[in-house]
Write a structure and sequence with these properties.
By secondary structure, the protein is mainly α. The chain has one domain (about 30-375). It has helices spanning about 30-45, 55-80, 85-110, 120-130, 135-140, 150-175, 180-200, 205-210, 215, 220-230, 245-270, 275, 280-295, 300-305, 310-335, 340-375. Helix 3 (about 85-110) runs antiparallel to helix 6 and helix 7 runs antiparallel to helix 10.
């Protein structure tokens, strides 16, 4: 068992920073996840003519993942004084791989049956099973991947990030680094990555190199992780602010979040590809900071009630399988209809249905298996 021991910081709370619920489900995040996956779906659908900024949905996914997982790691550290890396990686494995491998197998089966056109190579299949899809696309393109599974590139970015960064963060804590040092370190790395993208672009790097590579995209995850460490709205960090600033934020948070949403929308619709591949991600992640602060602390307001509605929460829970399978469904239904809007509407409904089945048949059983393994072989988190 790998664990980290450290001092237990005091956990204060304020009206604009309520404590993280014991259930570890942060308000509104399922709703945000649902909206993000819908943005991606429209971008891949038949209705879009190449103008819809579907890539912003992936940026929100990355930011949300960095924020949520770092929040849970920090919460575990503050509660028990340690973090079990074995448990962390076990949960990531059982959360990600079953549904991902199921999608790959379904894609291969449809290709073998001649239902989906494909020119698959063994290396392309191996790249997806080993979470190397993003760099495989950079080197070899899409053609030899299992059909309609190129979205696995974003999964590869996350898994490569989580193979390295949590261990690096925990080692930093283990050797006495303060939480604020680590958080600002992540901000510094995120800014360096933005500069690295600009440098590569100025030196002739193509779209695939800039858009799919982990070393040019993990800044979205880093911004979310830094937010969780430096000024986490659900772990009482507002108490670190001065009383006057805290009161001003409490009064004006709605306006700040609205302005941030406008900035996010405007940056997403800038047509220049050079902007999208350089600083767009940085601008959008900075805009997401007050947006996440608002939606996670104002769950009882109009926006909060919408994001925490049963429909969006359910879609948020299904969003992983939905994201993995939606391109396959669109590719199957597209040739049957000549109307783009009808194609996308039916594809949306079918993807929701298939995602629910996968949730029941694949995700839930493996979650239960993971829980049994934890109880059988790993100590209690509170031990």
């Amino acid at each position: 068992m790998l664990s980290l021991r450290g001092p237990l910081p005091r956990n204060h709370h304020s009206p604009i920073s309520p404590p993280l619920p014991d259930t570890s489900r942060i308000p509104s995040l399922d709703g945000l996840r649902a909206l993000a996956v819908l943005v991606v779906f429209v971008g891949h659908g038949r209705t879009d003519q190449g103008q819809w900024p579907g890539y912003v949905g992936v940026t929100v996914f990355f930011f949300l993942s960095g924020f949520l997982i770092t929040t849970l790691l920090r919460k575990e550290l503050e509660k028990s004084g340690r973090i079990h890396l074995t448990r962390f990686y076990l949960r990531r494995t059982f959360r990600i791989l079953p549904a991902a491998y199921f999608t790959i197998v379904i894609s291969l089966a449809l290709a073998a049956a001649g239902i989906l056109p494909a020119s698959i190579s063994g290396w392309g299949v191996l790249a997806e099973f080993l979470n190397y899809t993003n760099y495989y696309i950079v080197e070899a393109g899409y053609e030899s991947l299992p059909p309609e599974t190129s979205q696995m590139w974003s999964l590869a970015v996350e898994e490569q990030y989580y193979l390295i960064v949590p261990l690096a963060l925990l080692l930093a804590y283990r050797f006495g680094a303060r939480r604020s040092w680590v958080g600002w370190g992540l901000v510094s790395v995120a800014l360096v990555i933005a500069g690295w993208r600009i440098f590569l672009g100025l030196n002739g790097a193509d779209f695939d190199r800039l858009y799919f590579s982990t070393d040019t995209r993990i800044d979205s995850i880093l911004w979310g992780a830094a937010f969780a460490l430096l000024l986490n709205p659900v772990l009482g960090d507002a108490e670190r602010l001065t009383g006057r600033l805290r009161r001003w934020l409490s009064r004006n948070l709605g306006w700040i979040a609205t302005a941030a949403l406008v900035i996010l929308a405007v940056s997403a619709t800038v047509p220049a590809l050079s902007f999208r591949l350089s600083i767009a991600t940085t601008v959008q992640c900075l805009a997401l900071l007050p947006i996440f602060w608002f939606v996670t602390t104002r769950a009882n307001g109009l926006v909060g009630r919408l994001l925490n509605s049963r429909v969006l929460v359910r879609l948020g829970m299904l969003s992983f399988s939905f994201y993995l399978l939606h391109k396959i469904v669109i590719a199957l239904i597209g040739p049957l209809l000549d109307a783009p809007i009808a194609t996308d509407t039916i594809s949306l409904l079918v993807t929701l249905l298939v995602s629910q089945v996968v949730f029941w048949a694949v995700e839930s059983p493996f979650t239960k298996l993971r829980v049994r393994i934890e109880r059988r072989f790993l100590p209690s988190p509170a031990a």
